[in-house]
Amino acid sequence: MSVNEKAPPQPEKKFGCPACGAKMTFGLARCDSCGEEAPIYNRRAFWPLFYASLAAVVLALVAWLVIG
Ligand SMILES: [Zn+2]
Fold it and tell me: Which residue in 3, 28, 46, 63 is a FRET match for 57, CA 20 to 30 A apart?
C-alpha cells in the first residue's frame, strides 16, 4: 500500500441500493446489506470514465460549434 494513500475513517456511502434501499459502501460491487449487485455508478472506476466521456462530448460539441 502506498504511503500517500489516505484511509478514510468511515466508508463512503453515496447511493442507496435499488433492491433494499440501504446505503451502499461506495466502491463495492455488491450491496453490503442485501448482497445484490450494486449499480455501475457505485464503482469508483465509473466516475472518471463518466467524466472523461462527458468531457469528450463537450469538446466535440465545442469543436463542432467553433469549426462548423
Ligand atoms: Zn441492498
Answer: 28
